Amino acid sequence: MSDPFLSWVRRYLTGRFQRVSLEGVFAVWLPVTSGVPWGSIIGPLLFLAYVNDAPGYVQSNNIAALYTDVSKLYRTIDRLDARSILRRVLQTVFKMEQRLDNGV
């Protein structure tokens, strides 16, 4: 990846860890493998850049619902092949995500 901005974004998003606490008891630190940092100034922009192209990968009979912190993809299962169609769409979106993760 030779683009300086993309290199910076990759460095910004990798190597992050998080943990949760409940009533003063802390869980172990675990790596953050997806998403953008909450509360960061650039987080909303990175999220928009990520989800902006997602509806283009979805066929018309599927519904993509994009919210501020989550995306949902669903369809009505009204015939036998609808499950396999939805599975193929989910695989396409997953491959898109993998390409983005690899900087392609």
What does the model show?
By secondary structure, this protein is an alpha+beta fold. The protein has one domain. The protein has three helices and six strands. Strands 1-4 form a two-stranded antiparallel ribbon. The protein has a two-stranded antiparallel sheet with strand order 2-3.
List the helices and strands and how they pair.
Blueprint: H1 4-13, E1 17-18, E2 21-22, E3 25-26, E4 30-31, H2 43-51, E5 63-66, E6 71-74, H3 82-101
Antiparallel strand pairs: 1-4, 2-3, 5-6
Order of helices and strands: HEEEEHEEH
The spatial strand order of the largest sheet comes to 1-4
Q: How far apart are the first and last residues' alpha carbons, in Å? A: 8 Å
Quaternary state of this entry equals single chain
* Alpha-beta classification: alpha+beta
SS elements, strand count: 6
Helix content: 25-40%
How many domains comprise the coordinates? Answer: 1
Mean pLDDT: 75
Radius of gyration: 17 Å
Beta-strand level of the residues, as a percent range? 15-25%
Shape: extended
The main pleated sheet reads as: 2 strands, antiparallel
Summarize the structure.
This protein is an alpha+beta fold and 104 residues long. 38% of the residues lie in helices and 15% in strands.
